[in-house]
Design a protein that fits this description.
This protein is α/β, with parallel strands linked by helices. It is 30% helix and 30% strand. Helix 4 links the parallel strand 2 (35-38) and strand 3 (56-59). The protein is globular. The termini are far apart.
Length: 200
């Protein structure tokens, strides 16, 4: 018999124990008017959620932007991406800094060699004390799919779209090394082999 949690995931609803630490009303109130960077796809659920709080929200469909870089031919002599490449991919972020970052599945689009530059680029756009959220696919237990979520409540996500896609598996050790001096502070393993995490 499927558990209630498994049934929710199968129906496209995902409960999160970590999101309330990031998006809880009390925390958002303490931040005043936080600047939120959402690397996902614009959707009515997330827009509705953030419209109920005094946030400044910037949404980037990062998957579409990162795919050409992720799919470029590589061999042993291909250098990893540099910070300048990410600056060029996301020119709209120039001069901006954020208090909250939502990465979703996008780091699995990039090979591990590109991650240090991605996180250095990201770090240039974060305020001190910024916290972020994301997922890491690290086990090939299901068909790899890029997912797009909407935020329904501080602890509830709704799957709004997904597509089969070649994703790079990353373990937590590799992510921690790539994101230094940022670091994962909490993580929860989901039944599909993805690890949900908060970082700061």
């Amino acid at each position: 018999m499927a558990t209630a949690s498994a049934r929710r995931e199968e129906s496209g609803v995902l409960r999160s124990r970590l999101l309330p630490r990031l998006l809880g009303a009390e925390r958002l109130e303490k931040l005043g008017t936080p600047h939120v960077l959402d690397f996902g796809r614009a959707n009515a659920d997330s827009l509705g959620y953030f419209s109920n709080h005094p946030c400044r929200l910037q949404v980037l469909d990062a998957a579409e932007t990162l795919l050409p870089l992720a799919k470029r031919p590589r061999d042993a002599d291909t250098p990893p991406a540099g910070v300048a490449e990410f600056d060029a991919l996301f020119p709209e972020l120039a001069g901006q800094r954020f208090d909250i970052v939502l990465l979703w599945d996008c780091i699995n689009l990039l090979p591990v060699g590109d991650l240090p530059a991605f996180f250095r680029f990201l770090g240039e756009h974060l305020h001190d004390g910024c916290r972020g959220h994301g997922f890491i696919l690290h086990k090939r237990t299901v068909e790899p799919r890029l997912r797009h979520f909407g935020i329904c409540a501080e602890d509830t996500l709704k799957l709004i779209a997904e597509q089969p896609l070649t994703l790079h598996l990353h373990n937590r050790k590799a992510i921690n090394e790539a994101m230094d001096p940022l670091a994962i502070e909490h993580a929860v393993l989901h039944g599909d082999g993805r690890q949900e995490f908060l970082f700061r």
